[in-house]
């Protein structure tokens, strides 16, 4: 589910969880699949479910922490797109937000479309969507080919 075994610092994890939660709520629903996704992200980064629940209550004006490396920005963008699709519904408001996030991260909207297509295709093939190192390199080196 989460694409790499990278560890984020505590403030970056909190920021990422809070903003993923905000994305999930754009469609006015926060479903169990979305909550599970946040719990898994927390566990991957050493944060228990109770702490994730605290983060979800502490959402007022929390800063968006932009990762420094292009690789980390793509990985986080991938997680935003996974959150958008985790409930098996493509909501236009969530898609627009992912486009805005991509632009804030310095990426073209085409990257969102390419990653979204890859995730949907994997799910249609009954595979668990994941971002391989080869795909990541393609997104970093050749985003115009998406």
Automatic annotation (TrEMBL):
Protein name: TerB family tellurite resistance protein
Lineage: Bacteria, Pseudomonadati, Bacteroidota, Cytophagia, Cytophagales
Gene3D superfamilies hit by this protein: TerB-like (1.10.3680.10)
Domain of life: Bacteria
Organism: Marivirga atlantica
């Amino acid at each position: 589910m989460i694409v790499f075994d990278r560890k984020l610092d505590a403030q970056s994890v909190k920021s990422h969880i809070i903003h993923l939660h905000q994305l999930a709520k754009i469609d006015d629903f926060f479903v169990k699949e979305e909550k599970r996704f946040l719990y898994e992200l927390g566990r991957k980064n050493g944060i228990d479910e109770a702490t994730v629940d605290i983060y979800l209550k502490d959402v007022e004006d929390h800063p968006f922490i932009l990762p420094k490396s292009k690789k980390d920005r793509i990985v986080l963008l991938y997680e935003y797109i996974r959150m958008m699709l985790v409930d098996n519904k493509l909501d236009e408001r969530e898609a627009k937000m992912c486009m805005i996030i991509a632009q804030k991260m310095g990426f073209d909207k085409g990257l969102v479309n390419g990653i979204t297509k890859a995730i949907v295709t994997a799910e249609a093939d009954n595979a668990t969507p994941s971002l391989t190192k080869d795909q990541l390199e393609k997104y970093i080196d050749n985003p115009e080919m998406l």
